Amino acid sequence: MKDEASGNDDGRSLHVGHLPTFAFGHRSPMWWGTLGLVAIEATVFALVIVAYFYLRGLADAWPLSGSLPPDLLWGTVNTVVLLLSMIPNEMARRAAERLDLRGVRTGLAWCLAFSLAFLAVRALEFTALNCAWDDDAYGSVVWMMMGLHTLHLITDTWDSAVLAVLMHTGPIDGKRFVDVSENAGYWYFVVGSWLPIYATVYFGARI
After folding, report:
1. pLDDT mean over 89-104
2. Which segments constitute the Heme-copper oxidase subunit III family profile domain (predicted)?
């Protein structure tokens, strides 16, 4: 320990004042937490998709009850919107890792706009599924997939909105920029998870 009177150091103390208080990527605990969350949620999506094809394999006809497959229009429009939404998310992520406050604010505003647009089109998607959740097993599993993904969209939209407000009102520190970076990383999972769900919901009943 350091002798305050003499100013000497006996060699047992560890000086950490020079270490950073935040970090991006795998050096951040938030990155590992997000990775664990993604692993859990990806497993849930995979199980629901497996359940869909298990039920399809047991059925004489699919969809059941003579239902039509979901209309392709709104689901395809939303897929395009979701893919385009990665652009502002990447802008926000890069700005955050540069500690560029203005760039983060702009990126988050665009992220929020794309999220709200996607949710608006998602409402139209539900009207074009051509089945209700309580019609039969087909309707239940389709609505389960769509509902789970919509829940993820809502939570990430809320996160983006909160971050957008905090980046204007403060307090602003390095850890807040890490939050923006991890929020973008989670959004990539939302986009990536939608692609197999889209293929299953919209083409699983057509093949």
Report:
1. 90
2. 30-206
Task: Using the Cα atoms of residue 153, residue 38, residue 89 and residue 23 in order, give the sign of their dihedral.
Answer: positive
The enclosing domain of 50 has a CATH number of: 1.20.120.80
CA atoms within 13 A on the CB side of 81: 20
Q: Is residue 19 part of a domain?
A: no
Q: Show the domain range for 132.
A: 28-203
Sign of CA dihedral 56, 60, 61, 64: negative
Residue 120 lies in a domain: yes
| Cα–Cα separations (whole angstroms), residue 75 to 64, 125, 139, 150 | 21, 6, 16, 13
178: its two tokens: 């890490």
Q: How far, in Å, CA of 97 to CA of 186, rounded?
A: 16
Written as six digits, the tokens of 19 are 């270490």
The CA distance from 24 to 1, in Å, is 32
Give the whole-angstrom CA distance, residue 159 versus residue 163.
6
Distances (CA, A) of 90 to 29, 106, 139, 180: 21, 12, 35, 10
Any domain includes 21? no
Question: For 171, how many CA atoms within 13 A lie in the half-sphere containing its CB?
Answer: 3
> Has residue 15 been placed in a domain?
no
- CA distance linking residue 183 with residue 158, whole number of Å: 11
Question: Residue 177 pLDDT > 70, yes or no?
Answer: yes
